[in-house]
Amino acid sequence: MLEDFEISVQQVAEDLRTDRPFHIIDVREEWEVAAVRLEDKRVSVLPMSRIAVELEAAYPGFLKDRQAEIVVMCHHGVRSANVTRWMMQNGWQNVKSMAGGIDAFAAQIDPSIGFY
To answer: Please, what are the domains in the chain?
Structure first.
């Protein structure tokens, strides 16, 4: 069952098939992204380790818009849930964590991206 701040991998996959503007923030470390990644211009890599040190200063300009539609993604959904909660507590209005992370996306939507 999804928590109120989560979005399903099915919904993310559906959204990726459109040209609707939204952002996916991949908070995994660079080595993880090198192993398995979603290829889309709306995906930006911003490791949680960097956010933990720099907080909002780590965010590129488009992420500072607290009204922007944002999906936060990680490996299994734990880090993305933590980042999503932090963002919500700090005023972002339209941010969701991708439930199950990229592992669930690979298992349920596109196994060709791989697993690690």
So the answer is: 6-113 (3.40.250.10)
